[in-house]
Amino acid sequence: AWLNATQSRRGYVQAQISDLTREAQNVQDLMQKVAGAGLALPQKLKKAGHVTFTSPAKGKILYGFGDADDVGSASRGLTMRVRGGEMIVAPADGQVVFAGPFKGYGNILIIRHGDDYHSFLAGFGRLDSAVGQVVNAGEPLGRSSMEQGNNTQLYFELRYRGAPINPAQYVHVTNVAANP
Question: Is the dihedral of CA 105, 99, 15, 29 positive or negative?
Fold first, then answer.
């Protein structure tokens, strides 16, 4: 009975996320929609206190927060060059609220953390996480794309109460290698 209820709840949440994905105009819209999607935050994350973040992968930072990116827009996160097939890990304890392809971004992942923080990660070749899954900091989420070899890019955006914030102020930069 418990397994059937869990599978039924997971199916309901997946359908709800699919609807939100179709309705969302862009990533910012998607993040706002999934933030209020009704997944109950696990008790462990409600008592988080101060959230500590680490780098989701080893790599070289190509564009920092606010830098002009490859299309001339101000970056809302960190763009890192990582090796193809590089393991991507959870930057902090949290719950996956979106996992899958999204409008030209390829496979993306959105994680809700305690204290009103969300992480947005793009650049996955393979996702090993599912909506509703509770993850621990450093837990594998998937691997970077292999399409570009060692020129693969990983994008990491951190938001607080819906607004982009500079991840470099929260991430232990010592976890990021100088060169991939």
Answer: negative
